[in-house]
Design brief:
This protein starts with 6 loop residues before the first strand and ends in a 10-residue tail after the last helix. A hairpin with a 2-residue loop joins strand 1 (7-12) and strand 2 (15-20). With 261 residues, it is α/β, with parallel strands linked by helices. The protein has helices spanning 31-46, 69-72, 77-95, 112-119, 146-153, 156-165, 171-177, 189-201, 205-216, 223-238, 241-251; strands at 7-12, 15-20, 52-57, 62-64, 101-105, 108-110, 122-126, 130-132, 168-170, 182-184. The chain is built from 11 helices and 10 strands. It has a 6-stranded mixed sheet with strand order 1-2-3-5-7-10, with helices on both faces. Strands 4-6-8-9 form a 4-stranded mixed sheet. It binds coenzyme A. Coenzyme A (COA) is lined by residues 25-26, 28, 65-70, 108, 110-112, 134-135, 138. Coenzyme A is lined by residues 25-26, 28, 65-70, 108, 110-112, 134-135, 138.
């Protein structure tokens, strides 16, 4: 496994845990973190030993407290466009991974940190988590997809409110809004994330991969095109050993043993 300057990476039992590791700066996203995330997720994409990825922040204070404001402060208009687009490439890579990515939000997820969590497939939070899009306080708007992904995920009026006020909400409110799927005591967050990852890792990974593609296309194409796409991926699944195994196991009243092809 690669070692990184600002990430920690562990792979155990079909799971990768990616930890953003700049605790003294509340894991703020600087250019090193962003390029290491890109490298790391590209490697994990190709790694057949990894079925599910957990993304979290180091320490008990922050998931990611945003883009690094000392880097942001130096941007001019031209550099800013490139900055946002480069970041969006990394978050798109995560959103379109061929395996599920679970965000374990262990504290502040602000600005780019909230956007990073939004690019993951499932969001779990600890009770101390705090989420928000405070860019407006810096004379900015979200640039890593927040205006789009937040507005699609939660009630659009509440998304607009968060983006216009910069208000920071707690885990409980984030749960009520559907911004996070579950909230756990801090000590349980990674345990629960691992349990969820194990559960998904026990399924047919071929089917899991098609499911991500089918759900993700929802934002890109019309309803009728989406249904056609779903039918084509459903059909691909029917051609797999896993489909034969899953259906036979049910009929034979035993547990399936998937080979992920
Ligand atoms: N970029 C760069 N550095 C950051 C950062 C960010 N987004 N967020 C926190 N840090 C740094 C602080 O500057 C401080 O560094 P220092 O010790 O060298 O001074 C360190 O992380 C600890 O943060 P601090 O502000 O002292 O912690 P706190 O508990 O008092 O406050 C926050 C926590 C999250 C409320 C506060 O750090 C904050 O508002 N951060 C910025 C959030 C933001 O606007 N993010 C969106 C950016 S688009």
């Amino acid at each position: 496994l690669m070692t990184y300057q600002s990430l920690k990476l562990e792979v155990i039992n079909k799971k990768a845990v990616v930890i953003i590791n700049r605790p003294d700066k509340l894991n703020a996203l600087n250019s090193v973190v962003m390029s290491e995330l890109e490298h790391c997720f590209n490697e994990l994409k190709k790694n057949d030993d990894v079925f599910v990825i957990i993304l979290t922040g180091s320490g008990d204070k922050a998931f990611v407290a945003g883009a690094d404001i000392s880097e942001l402060s130096k941007l001019n208009m031209i550099a800013a466009n490139e900055y946002a687009e480069k970041g969006q490439v990394v978050l798109n890579l995560i959103e379109n991974m061929n395996k599920p990515v679970i965000a374990a939000i262990n504290g502040f997820a602000l600005g780019g940190g909230c956007e990073l969590a939004l690019s993951c497939h499932i969001r779990l939070a600890s009770e101390n988590a705090k989420l928000g899009q405070p860019e407006v306080n810096l004379g900015l708007i979200p640039g890593y997809g927040g205006t789009q992904r937040l507005t699609r995920l939660i009630n659009s009026g509440r998304a607009m409110e968060m983006i216009l006020t910069g208000d920071i909400i707690d885990a409980c409110e984030a749960f009520r809004l559907g911004l996070v799927n579950r909230v756990y005591p801090f000590a349980d967050l990674l345990i629960k994330a691992n349990e969820l990852a194990d559960k998904i890792a026990s399924k047919s990974q071929y089917a899991v991969k098609q499911a991500i593609k089918a759900v993700n296309i929802c934002d890109e194409i019309s309803g009728s095109e989406g249904l056609k796409f779903e039918a084509s991926l459903f059909s691909l699944c029917c051609g797999t050993d896993d489909f034969k195994e899953g259906t036979s196991a049910f009929l034979e009243k035993r547990k399936p043993s998937f080979r992920n092809k």
